[in-house]
C-alpha cells in the first residue's frame, strides 16, 4: 500500500513579510537624542547689518581766550558804567583758553569767535557773569543794557540755523569745562528775543566735578576748556543768592496766578554776590590751530 503525502496549502504572501516594529520615543529619548546629536553651527551674516553712525567731529579748529576779574565794589542794581568804568580797581582771576569745534557746529563757533574779537558789532569784554549754579555751570553773555554789564545786541552775526539741527545736540555735558550755547537755559528778556535782529550769544561753561545731564539734548556743545579749569573752579565757588524754600514756593504760586513780579524777583536767584566780569577776550593765533578730538 503506497503512502501519499498531503500538501498543505501555502500561506498567503503577506504572511512571509518580517514583522514591523515601531519604536516608542518617549520624552526621555527625545532629550537624549537632542543632546547627543551634533548639528552644524549656523553662521549669521553681518554684511547686511547697519554700520554704526560716525562719531561727532570734535576736532578743535579755533582757540579763543576769556580773562575774568572781580570788581571790589559789589553792584546789584546800580549801573556799572560803559565798559565797567565804575570798576577801576579790579582784581584779576585768570584766563580761560577755549577750544572750539568748528567742524561740528561752524555757525555757532563763528558767532562765538566774532563776539570774542568784537567783529560782531558787540563783544563779551566788559560784561558780567550773570548766574552761577554750584556744581553745575555758570552763565555769561546775557544781552541787554551795556551800563548794567550786559551784552549789547550784535548786528553783524550770521543767523544761527544750527539751533534746529539735530546733529548740533549730539554732544553731552559729560564733565566740567564744557562750553555750550544755552537754549533751554537762556536768560535773555522775552522782549529782546522778539526783535527780528536778535542773536543768542549767551553761553555757559560746566563747572563739574560731575556731568550735567539736565543740559543734554537741549543746548549746543561747541567747545571745551583747554587751559584754566582752576579759574572755572574759582568762579564756581563764589557765593550766590539762594532763596529759601518758602520764597520759592511763594514765587511759584505768584507765577501761577499770572503775577509778572514773580519773574522779576526770580531774576536775582543764583546771581553771584561778587561782581565777576570778562575783563578781556579775543582769538589766539597758533601755528597749528587744529587739535585731535578731545571728547569721546
From TrEMBL:
Source taxon at top rank: Eukaryota
Extent of the signal sequence: none
Reactions catalysed, as given in the entry: [protein]-peptidylproline (omega=180) = [protein]-peptidylproline (omega=0)
Pfam families the UniProt entry points to: Pro_isomerase
InterPro entries, A to Z: Cyclophilin-like_dom_sf (IPR029000), Cyclophilin-type_PPIase_dom (IPR002130), CYP28-like (IPR044178)
EC number, as in UniProt: 5.2.1.8
Keywords: Isomerase, Rotamase
Metal-binding keyword on record: no
Domain PPIase cyclophilin-type residues, every copy: 83-283
Residue ranges that the Swiss-Prot or TrEMBL entry lists as coiled coil: none
Gene Ontology CC annotation, any one: chloroplast
Root EC class: isomerase
Disordered: annotated span: 1-20
GO MF annotation, one: peptidyl-prolyl cis-trans isomerase activity
Membership in a protein family: Belongs to the cyclophilin-type PPIase family.
Function: PPIases accelerate the folding of proteins. It catalyzes the cis-trans isomerization of proline imidic peptide bonds in oligopeptides.
Protein name (Swiss-Prot/TrEMBL): Peptidyl-prolyl cis-trans isomerase
Organism, scientific name: Nicotiana attenuata (Coyote tobacco)
Gene assigned in the entry: CYP28
